[in-house]
Amino acid sequence: MSAASHASLRRRKITKQSRQLAKTKLRPKQAKARSLPEQNLPPQWAQTQVFPQCRIVAWEGTLKPLRATSLFPKIGSFLDSALLIRKGNIIHWEESIHPLDIGRVRNIIANTELLPLTIDYRLVDKSGAIAWVRHSIIEMTKKGRQTSAKGFVCDIQTEKELETESLRISEREQNRIGQDLHDDLCQVLAGVSCLMRVAEGRLASKVPEEIPYLTELNQQIIEAMHRTRALTHGLFPGKIQIADMRGALLELASQVRTRFQVEVKTEFIGRFPKHSSNQIIQIYRLTQEAISNAIKHGHANCIEVRLEAKPTNMFLSIIDNGSGLTQTEPGEKGVGLNIMQYRTRTLGGEFTIGNAPERGVRVTLQYPFER
Q1: Are residues 313 and 364 in the same domain?
Q2: CA of 219: how far to CAs of 62, 194, 196, in Å?
Q3: Are residues 167 and 113 in the same domain?
Q4: Which range marks the domain in which residue 67 is found?
Q5: Scanning 35, 40, 224, 315, which has its CA 20 to 30 A from the CA of 209?
Q6: 139 or 170: whose pLDDT is higher?
C-alpha cells in the first residue's frame, strides 16, 4: 500500500473517532433539553381538546372588582357569550354573577388569602339562564391597590343538578317512610291498645291481681304509639309545606320537646321575607340534623335556635350546651355533615360548625334572599 493510501485511511479513522468522542462528551443538560419537548409536552390533539372535553376555561383577571382580562379557549368553551358582559376587551365578570351569590363571592375573595381558593356560584344572563361554575384561583399578585389573579373556571351544572335530585329523592323517601309508619304501625298499635283494654275488663273479676300488669303493658303500648307518631312527624313534616319559616322552626322545636324531652329555645329577630317551599324544607332539615347531632353526640339538654333577618341575608344559629366537638371531629365529614353542606349550597349560603365560646357546639347558616 502506498504512503498516500495509508494517510487517507488514517484520516478516516481519526474523523470517526472524533465523532464518537463528541457524542460521548455531549453535555447532559443539552441531551436533557433535546429530550424534554418530546417527553413532557402533550400531543397536539390533546392540547386543543382537553379544555372543551373537560368543560373548563383558563381565567386571568382582577379580583377587586372581579373582571376577566383573558380566557382560554376563547372559542368553543362551555361559557356562552350571553352569560358574560363584555365592555371592550374586559369581561365584567362580577356583573354576570347571580344576585343571590354576589355577596358571598365578594366576602370569600376579600377574606381569604390561602391558595388555591375555590368558590361555587351561579352565572346568570339577562334572560334568566343559570349556569353553576366552580371558580378556582391558583395565583394572586398584588400591584398597589389592584390584585391580579389566575385560575380556572369549570362547569358544574350537572353536579349541582345531581345534588339537588339526591336531596329530592331523600325527601321523598323520608316522606314515604313517615306516611307508612303513620298509616300502618300507628294504627296497629292503636288496635292492640284497644284489645288490651278489652282484656282488662274480662279478666278484672277472674284474676284481679294481674290487672296492674295489664294496665302497665297497655300504657307502654300507648307510649310507643305516641313516640311513633312523633317520629312520623319528623320524617313527614306535612305542616311545614304550607308554613312560613318561623312556623316551620316552631313546629320543629315542639316535636323535639315531645320526642326527646329537651329544652328548645327559639328566638326570631326582624321581619322575615317570604321563603320558597324549597328554602323552608332545606333549612328545616338542616336545623333538624344539627339538633339531632347535639342530642345524640353531644348529650345536650338545652338548645337555642335563633333566626335573624339582616339587610341582605338571613342568619340562623343553633347552639347547644352539650359536650362539644373533639379536636379530631371538625375535620371529619360524615354523611350528615355532607348533606348539610349540600343543602347550604342549594341555598347559595355559607355554613359553619365549631365549638361555642362557653360550651357545646355552634352551627351557623347565612343565606341570601330576594327583596
Answers
A1: yes
A2: 69, 11, 10
A3: no
A4: 45-155
A5: 224
A6: 139
